[in-house]
Amino acid sequence: MEKQIRLNALDMNCVGGTPGLWPHPADETLRYNQLSYWTGLAKLLERGLFDALFIADIFGVYDVYAGDAGAAFRNAVEFPVNDPWVLLPAMALVTEHLSFGVTGTATYEPPYSFARRLSTLDHLTGGRLAWNIVTGYLDSAARAFGRNGQLPHDERYEMAEEFMEVVYKLWEGSWEDDAVRRDKAARVFARSEKIHKVRHHGHYFRMEGYHLCEPSPQRTPILFQAGASARGRRFAARHAECVFVSGSDPAAVAQITRDVRARVREEGRDPESVLIFCAIVVVADESGRAAEAKLADYEKHASLEGSLALLSGYMGVDLSSIDLNDPLRSREFDAIQSCVDRFSRIDPHRKWTFRDAVSRFGVAGYKPMLVGSPETAADGLIRWMREADLDGFNLEYIVNPGDFEAFVELVIPELQRKGVYKTAYAQGTLREKMFGRGPRLPASHPAARFRQDQNAPNLARISSEESGKLPRNSR
Amino acid sequence: MEKQIRLNALDMNCVGGTPGLWPHPADETLRYNQLSYWTGLAKLLERGLFDALFIADIFGVYDVYAGDAGAAFRNAVEFPVNDPWVLLPAMALVTEHLSFGVTGTATYEPPYSFARRLSTLDHLTGGRLAWNIVTGYLDSAARAFGRNGQLPHDERYEMAEEFMEVVYKLWEGSWEDDAVRRDKAARVFARSEKIHKVRHHGHYFRMEGYHLCEPSPQRTPILFQAGASARGRRFAARHAECVFVSGSDPAAVAQITRDVRARVREEGRDPESVLIFCAIVVVADESGRAAEAKLADYEKHASLEGSLALLSGYMGVDLSSIDLNDPLRSREFDAIQSCVDRFSRIDPHRKWTFRDAVSRFGVAGYKPMLVGSPETAADGLIRWMREADLDGFNLEYIVNPGDFEAFVELVIPELQRKGVYKTAYAQGTLREKMFGRGPRLPASHPAARFRQDQNAPNLARISSEESGKLPRNSR
Fold first, then answer.
1. Which of A39, A81, A188 sits opposite B74 (nearest CB)?
2. How confident is the model over B285-308, as pLDDT tens digits?
């Protein structure tokens, strides 16, 4: 049987997905600050049996281009960007099965209140919560939180490792499974000897306290990670249950998925227990011709200035002085080169100028695009699944909700006809839906070491006074 | 015309309001971790035209009694306690007018992300947001956030003053009123010259960045404060639009309201522009006899152990070794004495033992209780309004939702008949509903000094590098 495609839709609590498309007449993302925008989207995605709505997030602004944030402000380039977490309960109320993944930084917020917020959401959604662990990449975010600048890249991951240790202790170790009685007749809410104080005195974090929440359905929410660097992939291999990858063609992504699965194995975990999702954009319509016309219309709305602001922020290089007519590969900067490489892989036979590349970026970012009829789109997705050894996709939009509507109405039925997409939701929490087991993390996951209600001899102490590095799994 | 009574209902994202009543057969607060509990409560309160649901919160646990948290765990004494903020969007979705006030500490979270969360909620609720500013009172909370213990009481307020300065700069100063264009035709989201970077380098907080949210309906949410100390009342007099007070009888509360209004005047603000709410518990039924029987039934459920755990935490004194049969006033400790004073004022003619006082505390806390028929309850509220110069009440429950249901079904119609309670909601944001003007803070409020789009000569600079103390209002 063909592998089943899993699907997340990607959005962000801001105006527009790709810079410059929000002014498109059919785009409704200006309503991002209204509840009805989000409840409508959630209902649409549940109609299409999407596994989850994934909400990206960023602190800070894109102020590298031309040395200020003007272009980002004019074009609403991921700014303003509202808090994503508070959206979930309203969407959970109008859906039954759709899950919600949210980007949260392991850099700027105290782990104690962060862990409480996520536990609360796992309770309120009935275990439909996922967390995308990020470390941030904008200096402006670091300054907004009172630092002089970001920590070095790899050190941000060291800090994130310690953040994970603290939240694992809180989620997995503070309350034993049978701590909660909720017994009205006996007048006992919880058994005090089953609730443990977490003590963490580490290099970056220090705390001492009980987790404020009784165990939620999943305890630790499903863990997403998208690190692209070697250090980021090592982090993902240890912690992530779902890994986000991106690349311009299936062969390039296949290299990444091989590497991710090999690293997961090195961490003592089952390589098939990690689900890999690739970012993709699908522009579908009744016919291939209609889809091409739709894309051509989208392209007219792309914003060169907005794209340059976003790209400059991604790369940390001010692109305001480049000559847009220069051919790609003509630049010396390493940072730009890596960007250029990505674009040139999208269509290696084309002579790309900077303007071409930025325009393409302004429509669909770095992501590969499938454009065509429902059958073309479905076949393309199946080909990506096979050739890149994927488990599913993070579907991004150009115009919202139009692109998601077209996908739900046209492409989902085609995928179902081809037998590669579910026709009903599975029962249970997101972890049970995704993996067919759960609702808690498996014993092979490093978080399981912090559980206090097992007699395993290698159990980590959640109350050790010395900085515990997260204990290594036996290999 | 008789002054109109304003009403907030009080709840907390935890099991039970008063310790020990959650096992009552009619109490549903064990469902605090389900969305339906909160949407049901919100709809009930909107049916009763309540102004707001106020959600209290606490970080940390009550671990003073007997030197550990066992009694708090067994009796679910404000523990577990989930995140309150994320409840709001689900309740906003099922209501149109009800507002939401949430307790948030100005001590433990970074102001940058805190300000974003509140702006997001003010957007999503259409300006139905209030914030109850607290500084915390549990050492266990301080340790959970990595400190050795709390700052001294008055210094916590100094820190809160600086926290307010940072969030005012973000909410009021970062975006000018005409910064947002949202112009699809012109392809301009915002005018970059109208968005200002906030720089704050103070004693407790340091940050540099643009507020991440476009202006929400109220910008600064309605500000609640409940400080009872002299320093706390000075803080409230400067910042609060609504002040929470409590006391055992109208005469005692009248002293407090006089003091609050005098302090507001000293801060250069109109004393009548601050609304004063008194905590109260109402046990109402069809007849006085039925109400008394209801209370007698509640009293049977009170938890002595839970009450002692909560009281010990409030007072910071371990009460586990007291003799419950001792008469009140026999103790030497100052901290207990202040507690004893409160109880003895409730009924000065009664000879209270410690056990009596703790049992009374276990039903309705320190709060005064009105028990009786709808007419008795309504007359009691009107008497409190007059004698204590109040603007309204924070209505607390013993059993939930029963006590709120009885109030909505029985007491609200009686108040309406007597002409002291609205028969329909006013339009607009919470600030417009509460004050008949808005939706922004008036120019006389200290936050207004941080607005950048006025030409007032005494305008505070939001970007001053030196620690700006919040500028004093002209008096």
1. A188
2. 999 999 999 999 998 888 999 999
Contact list in A for residue B120 (CB cut-off 8 A) is: 13, 33, 82-83, 86
Predicted local confidence at residue B289, as pLDDT: 97
pLDDT value at residue A363: 83
Residue-range domains of chain B with CATH: 6-302+368-474 (3.20.20.30)
CA distance A388 to chain B (A): 37
Q: Is the pLDDT of residue A471 over 60?
A: no
Q: What are the E-state strand segments in A74-149?
A: 99-105, 129-134
Strands A222-225 and A206-209: unpaired
Name the residue in chain B with its Cα closest to that of A145.
B207
Say yes or no: ipTM exceeds 0.85: yes
> For the purposes of burial, counting CB atoms within 10 Å of the CB of B422, is it exposed (0-12), middle (13-18) or buried (19 or more)?
middle
| C-beta atoms surrounding A443 within 10 Å | 11
Residues A123, B182: C-beta atoms closer than 8 Å: no
DSSP state of B428: S
Shortest alpha-carbon distance between residue B206 and chain A (Å) = 5
Give the number of A-B residue pairs with CB atoms closer than 8 Å.
Answer: 221
> What value does the mean pLDDT of chain B take?
89
Find chain B residues with C-beta within 8 A of A213's C-beta. 80-82
Give the integer Cα–Cα distance in Å for B255 and A315. Answer: 62
Residues of B in contact with A30 (CB under 8 A): 182, 184
Q: In the prediction, which pLDDT does A247 show?
A: 86
Per-window interface: B 371-410 vs A, CB < 8 A: none
Q: Which two tokens stand for residue A233?
A: 């992939």
**What is the arithmetic mean of pLDDT over A184-204?**
95
Strands in A268-423 per DSSP E: 275-284, 369-372, 392-396
Q: Are B19 and B306 in contact (CB under 8 A)?
A: yes
pTM of the model: 0.94
Residues B229-271 have pLDDT tens digits of 889 999 999 999 999 998 888 998 999 999 999 999 999 999 8
Q: Is cis: bond before A439, omega within 30 of 0?
A: yes
Subunit contact A188:B214, Cβ cutoff 8 A: no
Under 8 Å CB-to-CB from A74, ≥6 apart: which residues?
Answer: A305, A306, B188, B189, B190, B191, B192
- B12 near B132, Cβ under 8 Å? no
Using a CB-CB distance cutoff of 8 angstroms, which residues of chain B are in contact with residue A34? 123-124
As a whole number of angstroms, the distance between CA B284 and CA B292 comes to: 9
**CA of B130 to nearest chain A CA: how many angstroms apart?**
16
pLDDT at A344 over 60: no
Angstrom distance (rounded) from CA A59 to CA B144? 24
pLDDT for A347 equals 64
Residue A157, phi then psi, degrees to nearest 5: -75, -30
Beta bridge partners of B10: B54
Q: Report, as ranges of residue numbers, the positions in chain B whose pLDDT lies below 50.
A: 330-335, 455-459, 464-475
Q: Is B79 on the interface with A (CB under 8 A)?
A: yes
Could you give the 3-state DSSP secondary structure of residue A228? Answer: coil
Q: Please tell me if residue B83 touches chain A, with a CB cutoff of 8 Å.
A: yes
Spell out which residues of chain B touch residue A206, defining contact as CB-CB under 8 Å.
146
Cα gap B251→B254, rounded to integer Å: 5
Using the beta-carbon criterion (under 8 Å), do B33 and A120 form an inter-chain contact? Answer: yes
A412 vs A5: CA distance, rounded Å: 10
Contact of A423 with A416, CB cutoff 8 Å:
yes
B89·A85 Cβ contact <8 A: no
